[in-house]
Amino acid sequence: MSDKERELISRIQGEITDSLGYDGEISEQREKAQEYYYALPFGNEVEGRSQYVDSTVQDTIEWIKPSLMRVFASGDEMVKFTPHGPEDVDAAAQATDYVNYVFTKDNPGWEILYSWFHDALLQKNGIVKVWWDEYDEVKREEYSNLSEMELQYLITNDNIEVLEHTQKDSIVNGVPEVTHDVVIKKYNTDGRIKIENVPPDEFLISREAKSIKDARFVCHRVKKTLSELRMMYPDDDFGIEDLGGGYNEQSYNAERLARYEFDQSEDMAEGWGGNEEEALREYWLHESYLRTDFDDDGIAELRKVCTVGNYVFANEEIDYTPFISITPLKIPHKFFGLSVADLVMDLQLIKSTLMRNLMDNAYNQNFGRYAVLEGQANLDDLLTQRPGGVVRVKSPNAVMPLATPPLEPYSFQMLGYLDEVRESRSGVNKNTQGINADALTSHTTATAVNAVMTNAQSRVEMIARQFAETGVKELMWIIYELLLKYQDKERVVMLRNEWVPVRPDSWSDKMDCTVSVALGNGSKDQQMAHLSQMIQFAAEAMRGGLPIVTSQNMYNLGSALVKAMGYQNVGDFLTEPPPPQPQQPTPEEQTAMMEQQIKMKELEIKQGDLQVKMMKVQQDAQEAAVDAQLKAEELALEREQGRAVAIGAT
Predict the structure, then answer these.
(1) Element (H, E) at 286
(2) Rounded distance, CA 180 to CA 161, Å?
(3) Which of 43, 115, 476, 600 could form a disulfide with 79 if both were Cys (CB 3.0 to 4.6 A apart)?
């Protein structure tokens, strides 16, 4: 190992220790949020008294998630790419379909969104990782009765390995013939976009970072077995002594263990302890992305360094950091925002405390305390609570109940007030949780009900817009860029019920990405009502001869209505109209066109005659100039001859 690599490892270890997410306050807050989500005991419970724990955090988050999933996952087009020019229209439409296909078909898109949103709502930030994954595909194939030429053509390919070969000699029509039976193994290298959720406790980022893009240091720490490390880095010759011991303090990270605390499964989650086989021994792989001037050119480049302890598996320059983060309540100029759990955890503690007091009071009302004259009553009878039970006493008034004062009505009103506080903080109230009887009274108009529902959903819509613009849009754009960079082979996939060959390297690298989420467009019922009104208006316009609607417009309206109803295969219900044919001219228009053509011909003839005359004039002028020049030369020659004769005579 060179001195430069030692310096790099030392810096990485320092960055890890100082990063956000490596223990510290952020980790403690996320651990607490996880415990509140599970409604675990607070630790202040008293034996013999109520130990009720409210579930405000879980209820609030679980009511927000259905709205978010309906917004993002209810349609077949999560993002849309818009072209920069008319030549990019078809490519933009194909990119839209294919990027959505890669996210939902090549990857478990619904599960990724669900876990991504859950992490953000509960633990401040949700993280996903996206990268291009290359893999070797191996197929076993058998061929029979191949000729010599066919055999040579088959096995000359570099990615073919012959497993079995049998040569058969025979005579056909008196001619000897040789055929071959072969079994081959075909190797093919291919790649796909891979997307996975990163647990918040496995993600580290430098403290001063405002976003992942401008972060000086980002790290994904993930547990890998020795066998997995050997498969990931087959060219590295390393052993257990190179990686250090199998123990790592991060295995016992409190935030990590809180995820398994509800069902006490942390022991199973941590593997086999120290009794596993050597190949199953676990290590923490740190996949670090940092900016450093490793090549000493004076400019810090982005590098990916993979390490286990002090052993370096990879150290290479890269062009992007493969992580995308979302947070429900973004704080400007900070990476970590606020989670929904941060807003309502204190309410869960207050409601739990209040409910415990109410339940303790109810217990005391039903099974109160007694004043007993010592030695005058049988304590066993008194302590045995059963209907119609007998308490033996030795004197009258030996047992007297102690009155328990009932709680005041405002104690119950306090619970309603706390629910109102939760509603104002999170936007989740009884209107979004279900039907509110007060909002549906006979004198309440539909407009008023719609206004109440819209106001109640505004906070959730704000969270959805935040996720769309800061996370989903960036994820889809990275998928687009990775396809442009790495997929250089044609792939045939089914898009919109048609098998389409896709070559991303033919797309333009300059396209805009728009997140197509159902925000600001009303509910599905509202969309269908609006589309139905538009179809009715368009039909009346066509019947009235108003030239503002075409058959293609009507098809587009019908297609949108079918999709709003939840049916994605529009072709099963509607047939797209053929392109409009050019209109044939009327007889009057044909006559006018013929007259126009005759006039154009006459004009062309006149222009031709004029050009001939001009050429004649030019030719005559040129001939006159030539004659004049010849005459001048003859005169000059005559003068020279006369001068010569005169000189000879003298």
Answers:
(1) strand 282-292
(2) 15
(3) 476
